[in-house]
Amino acid sequence: MDETLREAVLRRLALLEEAAEDGEAEALVSLARAEIHRLADGWRLVLAVHQPGEDGRCKACPGWLRRRRWPCQVWNTAHRHLIGEGLPHRERRRPLRNPFTRPGAVEPPGGTPAGTTTKLPILSDDPPVVHRAPVVSRPKHALPE
């Protein structure tokens, strides 16, 4: 069911894109009127679900320990697509954080913004060698043999 729903939505979006690119102007006026109303209603519904609660956090977006701060990603995406066209995207001051490292473990040199990579590293076909220390004793919580 999930895949059928996904395919139907993507097929409809492809049909609308094709009509916008190749359709005749007279036919597009009625299609645009109907679709703009449908898209606006759809955005309103999605944004209504993502309203902030009394704590100022999005009611729908789950977080790790608590809900996400508002405006959530859905509201930011709506703003970017509906209002923010033509505005340049802000540059990152720092590289994206790796969620699997400890905070503050890796700092960019000198606190400067991350530069763009111009050369790709050459990787060998051999897997990297991993050295591991031998197990000397069993942990205290290990089950007896």
Helices and strands in order:
Layout: H1 2-22, H2 25-49, H3 73-82
Would you kindly provide a written description of the structure presented here, covering whatever features stand out?
It is built from 3 helices and no strands. Among the domains are: 1-49, no CATH class; 52-88, no CATH class. It has helices at 2-22, 25-49, 73-82. 39% of the residues lie in helices and 0% in strands. The protein is extended, with a radius of gyration of 25 Å. The two termini are 48 Å apart. The chain is an all-alpha fold.
Short description:
With 145 residues, this protein is mainly α. The chain has 3 helices and no strands. 39% of the residues lie in helices and 0% in strands.
Structural class: mainly alpha
Radius of gyration, Cα only, in angstroms?
25 Å
- What is the overall silhouette? extended
Mean pLDDT: 73
Task: Give me the strand/helix succession.
Answer: HHH
- Low-pLDDT parts are none
Q: What oligomeric state is this?
A: single chain
Number of strands: 0
Helix content: 25-40%
Strand content: under 5%
- End-to-end gap: 48 Å
Report the sheet with the most strands, covering strand number, pairing sense and barrel closure.
none
**Count of individual helical segments:** 3
Biased composition (Low complexity): 103-118
Region (Disordered): 89-145
